[in-house]
Amino acid sequence: MLTIRLYVFQRKVITVSELIQINNLTIKANTQTIISNLSFDVQPNEILTINGPSGSGKSTVLKYLAQLQSPALTTSGDYLFKGKNAEDIDPIELRQNISYCFQSPTLFGETVRDNLRFSYDIRNMDFDEELAKDLLSHVQLSESYLDKDITTLSGGEKQRVALIRNVQFRPDILLLDEITSALDSDTRKIIWEWLNQYRKENKVTVIIVSHIKKEQQLADRIITLDKIGSDESEENHEPA
Ligand SMILES: Nc1ncnc2c1ncn2[C@@H]1O[C@H](COP(=O)(O)OP(=O)(O)OP(=O)(O)O)[C@@H](O)[C@H]1O
After folding, report:
1. Which parts of the sequence belong to the ABC transporter domain (predicted)?
2. 0.95 surpassed by complex ipTM
């Protein structure tokens, strides 16, 4: 008689509640310490704000999270993304999941369309023109902007094109570094209302660096950086 033995291996299920865990992060430029022993986590779907005086390292931390820091900087500490060591993740994959929006973005190609289409091209996908027009309307730009020459765009228009370039493939985490600094307060308000809606609907975690109080107040949690070796009397410029 044939006996069949069934071996059932129980799979160990590892649940990672934090999207990001940073432990004892230190960032240095030669002898200058920019960030010293910083530890924090990022939870799914939250809005986190990184505050601190000018030069305290806010942008440096955001760039580090997207692994876009300058090669001139040395870093130490642990960086886990979804429980995996960030250094072991393909940098392109990491940046598709963690998307960094610059205050002064670099646009490429000739037109706005070139900038939006690029992400489709690298994925071998057809450009979704309807989605692009919809996103343009959410950032208060008409669909005619698709064929605008990028050299004719204002700073605020460039910021908005870069923003929708970053959101169109729904990253897990959106890092927003002073992204409305060149916008008037009405446009800024409209864009934030949309962004807030967008992030809730798409379950996108947002990390904000901003000098604008109203944007800082959107946060569920705030991380405040101290300026290392800063002069206590230094002025912190904050527009109302
Ligand atoms: N590649 C680099 N090489 C040398 N120093 C750097 C480099 N990148 C950043 N720093 C230094 O690190 C410090 C923090 O810069 P960072 O731009 O992160 O500050 P911040 O808090 O974002 O400032 P701000 O609010 O003015 O934008 C600054 O003193 C800056 O000169």
Report:
1. 20-240
2. yes
